[in-house]
Amino acid sequence: MNTLGLSMIMKMGCFCTRESVNINGVKYVVKERLGEGGFSCVDLVENTTTKKKYALKRIVCHSIDDQKTAMQEINYYKKLRHPNIIELIDSTFKGSADIVVQATSEAYLVLPYYKRGTLHDYLTLRSFSKHHLDVKDIIRMFLEICAAIKFLHDFTPDPIAHRDIKTANVCLTEQGDPILMDLGSCAPAKVQVCGAQDAQRLQDIAAERCSMTYRAPELFNIESYCVIDQRTDIWSLGCVLYAMMYFKSPYDVVYERGDSVNLAVISGTVHFPEETPFSEDMHGLVRFMLEVNPNERPFIDKVIERVQGYKNKLEIVA
């Protein structure tokens, strides 16, 4: 190789050399960036020994509190074992967060990589052709998502709420089975709000962690004295079911128009297309979950019972 060729390769080294990450003695090479959020990013990585691909979630921590939040997420992954909840392969921290010296640390979470991407990705592709999902496929997938939520809500000793259920937080396996992911928003299901300060703190957390177009109405304007429970997830499930039918949450459309999502959610406004392949029973399932008053909204067992009843009805008709 001539000197010029070697020089060119050396100059281009930064483009050819891939970043590698060592996690508890296992080396991974970064292949590409899969996504970024407000608190983290996710890369596609490959185990250099087995050549198996994984998703690597990195959470930047600017303080001790950030580290505690990241550790809480890791702990949720470790204890929440269910076929429809994503599995944590490995995890570690690098660096040390210290606001005094302006240092940061990073939490590294190795997770399974799902080539099919998320339910959001799948629905977006289907929306281009306007080819709706078959109602039986919707019900099958939705019941599996509900099974994951029931596992959280029934968890002992303390029930857990996910607080950010949306189509982008549901991965799809090669067989089309839904896998609930992103446990960073998980929290104790029942929260007693005592005073304006409590309410504002929880409202700020909801604004940061709960996607607006899937967020329950009681999380937009939290009362000074109230109880927030796991039925916030039921509202989000109603939005997910709507999206599985019509490709987007009912409040994505509101957001895209530039109208107030807050007002639309609090009013309980839900519009269904006039031309639809879905029955009034399916619309009724959505309305059943999108009950503005959280005290009148069903718990997950009632949701599963009603969806299962509709599934049985479909099987009888078939």
From TrEMBL:
It is an enzyme of class 2 (transferase). SUPFAM superfamilies: Protein kinase-like (PK-like). Pfam families: Pkinase (PF00069). Keywords: ATP-binding, Kinase, Nucleotide-binding, Serine/threonine-protein kinase, Transferase. Its EC number is 2.7.11.1. The keyword Nucleotide-binding applies. It comes from Acanthoscelides obtectus. It catalyses: L-threonyl-[protein] + ATP = O-phospho-L-threonyl-[protein] + ADP + H(+); L-seryl-[protein] + ATP = O-phospho-L-seryl-[protein] + ADP + H(+). This is non-specific serine/threonine protein kinase.
